[in-house]
From TrEMBL:
This is DNA-binding response regulator. SMART domains: HTH_LUXR, REC. The keyword Ribonucleoprotein does not apply. Keywords: DNA-binding, Phosphoprotein, Transcription, Transcription regulation. It comes from Geotalea uraniireducens.
């Protein structure tokens, strides 16, 4: 299957350069390019690409806002943050908006870019170099903030269990991994949900992904 990609960046020369690189891949077709966040949204609505490569900061509408609307209206369209911005705030806000990953322009190689597009098109998450480091820092900052505010903080075993749940493992698989009974896994899961005031496993998984626990 040929993957349809939309480029969204306010620098024309950069868009042309990336288009040239991607068109060397026989399994990727660039269906359009946008110079503003609003144009990216309009083209995504019209062309329904598999993946949008989205710059974070653009005229008229930011890439973050455009991503949020795209994911609300077109959940099957995947968005990858692709920016020079490496500040924690931009990375985290793009992920909160629904992006399927984030790459830094200055570090992404042509082969990595193609790989990231393929991973995102499959509905998975892809992080380029330095992004995991940025997210880990954000995670520990949030832990400190929650502790200071008196918010519930999960222990190491609770975070481990939550990471396994978010990774898609069943209670039986988790019980084998942790060396405990299925009933123990279910009881611990229930305690975590009560502590976090969550009502379903789906909400629990969303929490784990938002907090960066899925890969633990």
């Amino acid at each position: 299957m040929t993957l349809r990609v939309l480029l969204a960046d306010d620098y024309r020369l950069f868009r042309e350069s990336v288009r040239s690189l991607l068109e060397q891949d026989s399994l990727i077709t660039v269906v359009g390019d946008a110079a503003t966040g609003r144009e990216a949204l309009e083209l995504a609505r019209r062309d329904r690409p598999h993946v949008v490569l989205m710059e974070v900061m653009m005229p008229e509408m930011s890439g973050i806002d455009a991503t949020r609307i795209i994911k609300r209206e077109l959940p099957d369209v995947m968005v990858l943050g692709f920016s020079m911005r490496q500040e924690t705030t931009y990375v985290v806000e793009m992920l909160k908006a629904g992006a399927s990953g984030y790459l830094l322009k200055k570090l992404a190689t042509p082969s990595e870019l193609g790989q990231a597009i393929r991973v995102a098109a499959e509905g998975e998450i892809y992080f380029g170099q330095r992004i995991p480091h940025i997210l880990v820092k954000q995670y520990f900052w949030r832990l400190a903030e929650e502790a200071a505010a008196g918010a519930p903080v999960l222990g190491a075993k609770e975070r481990q269990l939550l990471g396994l749940i978010a990774a898609g493992e069943s209670c039986k698989e988790i019980s084998f991994s942790l060396g405990v009974s299925v009933r123990t896994v279910e009881a611990r899961r229930a305690r975590i949900m009560k502590k976090l005031n969550l009502r379903s496993v789906a909400e629990l998984i969303k929490y784990a992904l938002r907090e960066g626990l899925a890969s633990m």
